[in-house]
Amino acid sequence: MKTFIIRSFIGIFFGSFIAVLITNLNILFGGLEMIDGPLFLKSSIGSVLCGWIYLVSSLYFKNRNLKLAQQTILQFLTVTILYLILALTIGWIPFNIINILLTLLISFVVYTIFWVAFFLYFKNQARKLNDCLKKL
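^ DUF3021 domain-containing protein, sequence as received from the core. Prediction below:
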């Protein structure tokens, strides 16, 4: 429960940071002189929820009763489904089949790239630790 609460706060703060960063970049480089208040509120809440979802869903990887493939599939499905619902509700993604399928494809590709990168990183860390243990 403690880990859940800590990750929840980190996710909320990360989502808030991303919302403010994107808004500031739009103002600086997008030529906006004023922002739309209701749109900013909607997008900020969406960013906060996305940050929370992404960080809390990583708790699947702490569950030792699940195999790595199960953890990965559960986390991917959780993140993708909740993001899709959120993005369609807020209006980040237009509600039509082409945009939904494109979002799913992009999500799968990005998730796979990040998953492989983290897998290789931790595999390399385990190899280094094993090498150090062999030297003892």
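Residues 118 and 124 are 10 Å apart (CA to CA).
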